[in-house]
Amino acid sequence: MEVIPAVDIRGGKAVRLFQGDYDRETVFDDSPVDAAKRWLDIGVTRLHVVDLDGAKTGEQVNIALVERIAALSDVPVQLGGGVRTVPAAQRAIDSGVDRVIIGTAALENDEFVENLCDRLGPERVVAGVDARNGYVAVRGWVEESEIPARDLIARMEKAGVLRMVYTDITRDGTRTEPSFQQVDEALHATTLRILVAGGVSHIDHLRRLSEMGVEGAIIGTAAYTGDIDMREAIRKQESRA
To answer: For residues 136 and 151, what is the distance between their CA atoms, to the nearest angstrom?
Structure first.
C-alpha cells in the first residue's frame, strides 16, 4: 500500500481544511512547492495534490504551482480540483501530472469520464468519491448531492476507470480515524482499486487499511502535525511489502 502525503493548495499556500470547510483553514506552509519537496526528500513514492481554489471555482487556478511540483522529481503526482473538461485534464497531464482525479464532473457526466479514459488511458483517470454521510458532495465539497456514494462508485466502474479516491468528508482534517466500515463496504462492492483519504492519523490506521486491501492511504493534516511520522510510515509499509 502506498503512503501518500497530500499537498492542498489554496491562495498559493499549502493548507488543510477541517471537514472540507473553507472557513476552517490552517496554513502549514507558505510554499506548496517547499512542502512537496520535504515529502520527496524523505522518500515518498507519490504526491496527492489538490487545487482547492480550482475545486471551488471549476477552473485550474494553481496549475503553475502544480507544474513546479511535478518538475521537482520523477515521483508521480496525482491532481484533483478543477479538472472538469478534457482540455483541463490534458493540460494537467502536459504539466507533468501522472493522474487526474475527477470529482464533480464524474458525478455530472458519465460520458465525459468514458471519453477521458479513452483519450488519456484509464490508468491516468481516477474517480474522486467525496462522501458526507454516505452522499456525494461536489464543487469543492460545498454542495451536497442526493446521489449515494455507492451509486457513483458503480457508475465509475462502468465508465471504465480503474481506481478511485474515497474521502469521508466528516473525517477529513479531524485527526480521528478513517471510516473503516464504509471503506470495507466499498472494497466488497467494487473491483476498483481504492485510495482512502480522511481521518488517517495514526500509524496503526495504515496497517489496518493495508490489511483490508486498500491500494493507498492519503495523509493530510496528520503528516503536517507529526501525528504520523512519515519516515516511519514509509519504512513500516515497505517492510510489509
So the answer is: 9
Instruction: Write out the DSSP string of 20-86.
Output: TEEEEEEEEES-HHHHHHHHHHTT-S-EEEEEHHHHHHSS-SSHHHHHHHHTT-SS-EEEESS--SH
pTM for this model (two decimals): 0.93
Q: For residues 191 and 122, is the Cβ–Cβ distance under 8 A?
A: no
State the pLDDT at residue 20.
67
8, 53, 98, 168: which one is catalytic? 8
Planar angle of CA 61, 67, 165, nearest 5 degrees: 75
Q: What whole-number distance in Å separates Cα of residue 76 and Cα of residue 33?
A: 14
Say which of 51, 53, 98, 130 is annotated catalytic: 130
Task: Identify which has the larger pLDDT, 60 or 70.
Answer: 70
Q: Is the pLDDT assigned to residue 140 strictly greater than 70?
A: no
Mean of pLDDT values over 34-58:
95
Identify whether 110 is a catalytic site residue: no
Give the integer Cα–Cα distance in Å for 34 and 195.
24
In the structure grid, which three cell numbers stand for residue 59, read together? 477552473
Would you call 30 a catalytic residue per the annotation?
no
